[in-house]
Amino acid sequence: MTSCNKPLVWWGHWYPEGHNNCRYEALLPRLTSVHAIYQRRGQARWRQAIRGRLDNWLFSRFLYPGIVRRLASRYPALFCTDIRYIPYFHGPIIVDDDDPVFTPERIALLNRPNVLAVVTTTEQLREQFLSLGLAKPCHVIPSGVHLSLRNDGRKKELEKKLEKQESDIVVGFSVPYLYTDEDLKAGSPEAALRSIGFLSSVMEKVWEQAPLIKLWLMGVPSRTVQAYARKHPQVRLLGYVTHTEVLNYFANFDIAVYPRLVDLSGRHSIKLVEFMAAGVPIVSTSVTEAFHVRASQSGIIATDRESFVQAILELAAHRDLRQAYSEKGKLYAESYSWENLARQYESQVLRHHLTQIHSRESQ
Predict the structure, then answer these.
(1) Which of 1, 88, 137, 362 is a Cys-bridge partner for 68, taking CB atoms 3.0 to 4.6 Å apart?
(2) Please, what are the domains in the chain?
């Protein structure tokens, strides 16, 4: 932790592996109003399995509240992501809640008198906050894309490494961890969100008409996913890819798919914007977060399994159509650069509310 006499300190966490949400890693260095950072790194998954209960009891109840109290004694204002620790900081607070869980307890914490404002990532989430009783200003600043990481030379290197041929049509899907419906039946809590069950049923139908179309899966595969890949020569497992490389991997997809069946009620899917930034046309289910595809006109939204199959086959057969969607997606993604979003965060949120703090203090 660094100390200074300036007002705003950031407290939050991010994960060292297995996660591609780089919101705070990308924003914080670009926010000049944030003068100190206290980073709580999330645990790697193997440590979570061993130390999860200890962390929850010892760290959450004793260590972290103590740290936040110490920050309160040194800094006038807090910028935070973990609302559990709001009660331990008595100065003004700005909260960034990019992945909210809506409960009465959460709304009550955000409505405490010293919370100045809440930031979330979509208009749909903002509307839910307000409808559930949030009485604070609620700003929308989405997560962005490292557009500078797009590199045609690196894309061609990966194309050669992956042995992709000019005639290949590659359907690509990416999540940090890959599961099948067998994992869901076995009780995996993440399988509902990350199962390839629907996608595999789609591809079985696709292969009946176009058996040479390939399926590349990006993410750490479960054993059942590995077994599925062994049975299907069209399937390639790429493993986990860090956010610094995803755009160049995505650029080697011909069609990107978003086969999610669980609707996340308007959450911001940065993956869809990354597909667009990489210039890849998209086929998505009709979940709420597919508003990006609809707004950008960068792909096809399928209402059921059969329309998903037909969308893939149509894009595979028409290069010009893929190119048209690609160009629209890249144009849409330009507004999601981290540089652009950081400027919005500074002007619309931090400077605005810090000015309010200084005005109160001078009165």
Answers:
(1) 88
(2) 8-144+337-362 (3.40.50.2000), 147-336 (3.40.50.2000)
